[in-house]
Specification:
- By secondary structure, the protein is mainly alpha-helical.
- The chain has three domains: about 50-110 and about 350-485, no CATH class; about 110-220; about 260-345, no CATH class.
- The protein contains 24 helices and no strands.
- Helix 7 crosses helix 9 (about 185-200).
- The longest helix is centred in the first third of the chain and has 31 residues, at about 110-140.
- The protein starts with a helix and ends in a 5-residue tail after the last helix.
Length: about 475
């Protein structure tokens, strides 16, 4: 009993240590993330304060009830699922989304100083990871071993890491605004995250970054009468730039032709490279077409003389599957040109992320129209999609989930599941604005945007990220830490 009492006296310390370990795992290690979650739950069961748990459960019953209803809808959908194993596995992956917020909200002691220390540790950890990722990627670039910008993320999913970075930037802004972190440290971190996210070419993260800056910028600039004119000026400048960018994107791109004499071009290429001119590059694309598009991106004609004067670095770029100079150097401009090419010229969706997403969304919507109220069941999502993809041009290796969490939930759980998830996020956006809970509002906006482009809850890391910060942001006991209502 003495040992048990000794542990209970240090219960708060244990919770915060496990929270720090979980955040470390969220950033770079699935093992640490899973292990800390399990240990946290077991520690609560053995040494938790059940009186506090009941009290917190009652005070947070509204949003917890919605989560539990959504969980129940997932479970009920198994009643019309043929593949029960796949259904149970899908719910297991999402378990962190349902369990973590309840566990955090009902057990964590809301000690402001400790919470700030834990998140300062997260900012430091993310700084180290960004530097390591950058050094490694630059090494790969210099050795021409970087075939994809996703290689920038060394320790996990580039999308999840990018979105975590954006929310950490929001945390840093909040701390700086409340003098919880020195501005001389906050601004370099904000700049580093901004540069990293833009360089990563992860459009989900870039969109979330724009949302974060837009929201915080509006809040800060509208606080004072003098800065409102500045906000309006920035808003107009942003709208003008966006309109020019959209106009350029929608304007048809010039179609790149082909070599007039492919046989002679092949002989010239043979003298420059060991790769077969009529074969594939390192990305599995037709090498001749990669070569043609690379020359077009340089503004050169598709003549034999252009091929003869092609530099050795350009030859290596083509071998690696890059269709322009910018993409080979990890430049976001190359990504922009690639998306524009896909939108205007490419017909085959395979290997083209934008066209693949269009196919995913179109296919999912067709299946939803066939099963609008009940869905196909959580276990039959993959089976239904695979059958529907047979009528499309997608090859098996590119046949994936809808890349839209709302569509995936509607497809698996029906209309009620979609309404619960979408309504849950939308309600807390408006509530966060009313409460002047800036971090909650930004987090929910990030969730809303990212779920429109990704299956955010279909991976353990995504579900854990969402679940953890839901618990930290939605708990009534945490409102005094995060809210600025009385400022």
């Amino acid at each position: 009993m003495v040992g048990r009492d000794w542990i209970k006296e240090r219960r708060e310390n244990v919770y915060f240590i496990l929270l720090g370990v979980f955040l470390t795992g969220l950033a770079c290690s699935k093992f640490l993330m899973s292990a800390s979650f399990i240990v946290y739950a077991l520690f609560f069961l053995l040494y938790g304060d059940y009186g506090l748990f009941r009290e917190r459960l009652i005070s947070n019953k509204k949003w917890i009830s919605v989560l539990l209803i959504l969980f129940l809808i997932h479970g009920v959908s198994l009643c019309w699922t043929e593949d029960l194993h796949a259904g149970w596995n899908a719910i297991r992956v999402r378990l962190s989304f349902f369990a973590l917020p309840i566990l955090i909200a009902t057990t964590l002691i809301w000690d402001k100083d400790r919470i700030v220390k834990v998140f300062k540790f997260l900012l430091l950890l993310l700084t180290v990871l960004m530097v390591l990722n950058g050094i490694r990627f630059l090494y790969l670039l210099n050795g021409q071993k970087a075939l994809d910008i996703r290689q920038l993320s060394w320790f996990g999913s580039h999308i999840r890491f990018g979105i975590l970075l954006v929310f950490s930037l929001a945390l840093c802004l909040h701390f700086a605004m409340n003098n919880l972190i020195a501005k001389r440290l906050a601004w370099p971190y904000i700049l580093l995250v901004t540069v990293y996210v833009i360089f990563s070419q992860t459009f989900s993260a870039i969109g979330c970054l724009l949302i974060t800056f837009g929201y915080f910028g509006a809040v800060l600039l509208l606080l004072k009468q003098k800065t409102r004119l500045l906000f309006i000026s920035v808003l107009i400048a942003g709208m003008v730039f966006s309109s020019f960018l959209m106009r350029d994107f929608l304007s048809p791109t010039e179609v790149c032709g082909s070599f007039e004499n492919a046989q002679k071009a092949s002989l010239i290429w043979k003298g420059k490279s060991r790769f077969d001119f009529n074969g594939k590059d390192r990305k599995g694309q037709a090498l001749q077409r990669t070569c043609e598009r690379y020359l077009c991106s340089l503004g050169r004609s598709l003549s034999l003389s252009s091929l003869e004067t092609l530099e050795s670095d350009a030859v290596k770029d083509i071998e690696n599957g890059f269709t322009d100079y910018y993409s080979a150097r990890g430049n976001i401009i190359g990504r922009y040109f690639e998306l524009k090419y896909e939108f205007h010229v490419a017909k085959d969706p395979n290997g083209h992320s934008l066209l693949q997403r269009f196919t995913y969304w179109e296919t999912a919507l067709k299946l939803i129209k066939q099963n609008p109220f009940w869905g196909v069941g959580m276990g039959d999502i993959d089976r239904s999609l695979k059958k529907a993809y047979e009528k499309t041009a997608l090859l098996p290796e590119y046949q994936k989930r809808p890349h839209n969490m709302f569509l995936t939930t509607w497809l698996g759980c029906g209309l009620l599941g979609f309404c619960c998830l979408f309504g849950f996020i939308l309600w807390h956006i408006f509530q966060g604005m009313y409460q002047k809970h800036r971090l909650k509002t930004v987090f929910m906006l990030i969730l809303l945007f990212s779920m429109m482009l990704e299956d955010s809850l279909e991976t353990q890391t995504g579900a854990s990220f969402t679940g953890l910060f839901l618990g930290l942001m939605l708990s009534k006991e945490a409102l005094t830490i995060w809210s600025l209502k009385n400022d």
